[in-house]
Amino acid sequence: MNLKDINTLKTLLSTPQKIVIVPHKNPDGDAIGSTLGLCHYLQNEGHKATIVSPNDYPKFLKWIPGNDSILNFEKENYQSKDRINEASVIFTLDFNHLGRIGQMQPFLEEANATFVMVDHHQEPADYASIMYSDVSMSSTCEMVYNLIEFLGDVSKIDTKIANCLYTGIMTDTGSFRFASTTSRTHEVVADLIKKGAKNAEIHHKIYNANTPSRLHLLGCALKNMVILREFNTVYITLSQEELDTYNYQKGDTEGFVNYGLTLEGIKFAVIFIENKEEGILKISLRSIGDFSVNEFSRKHFSGGGHTNAAGGKSDDSIEATTRYFVSLLENYKEELTA
């Protein structure tokens, strides 16, 4: 974050503001952890801060301190719109394009607030007056820690903030195993633990909250896995019928795509999940090494993200989409088999 933006933000927050904090649609651990961590900080500083989420999020995140105060735009529409309309400042966290917030997009586009973006994804849009964008960061939660430090307030991080930020860093780094985890990440995490983050308890609440139906759905997904050894690639499919059979709940497929990368020699893993309600296939892409799933998804599946983790979508059926996907791999064979 450059010095000009830091000083502008300090000036902006030097007087009490009405603030709305927005994560992306279908928020994950980093989105919820970062918004709640920032919200606690701003409230402690005397601001009226509210989180408005585009929609619901997984049950395994609903223990995080402050969770009960989050407004769900889909279910609390009028109250959410009122908060957006009266906001003097809007923070957008863990996304960099207003297309990532679904039906909230037109309301934010019409808002008169000063926008502040905090995000670590590639190719940010230019809607924010103050922008903290850094693709090298492990997570938006690590960036919120840095933001508080830039404002000279790292000593004000309390136990609630520490637990929120630790959650997002842990989940977005794959429990600190992804390449985006740096020595600085570990320094931040160490400080959060010193400030009260309950690391073992957080890990247990996130990763040991399975239901029998989720494990059965995982078994179905693994049974559907297709291994393409000639391209060092794996893909998984889940139909709406299969989701319904195993009583799918939001967040149940989180992490399924990563199982493909546990196979020896596999560099590229994808999962295609049918969503009849939205009329699309949701696609998650992961890779190991230099193969950019961000570029692959942007070019072929209207998506994007990071070099090794991205999302996308398709309007076609599972059968047509997977055929198209496999047909693309020949163009990337040299990269995938190097």
UniProtKB/TrEMBL annotation:
Annotated ranges, domain DHHA1: 247-319
Domain DDH: 18-169
Coiled coil regions, renumbered to chain: none
Highest taxon, organism lineage: Bacteria
GO molecular function: nucleic acid binding
Protein name from the UniProt record: Phosphoesterase RecJ-like protein
Species of provenance: Maribacter vaceletii
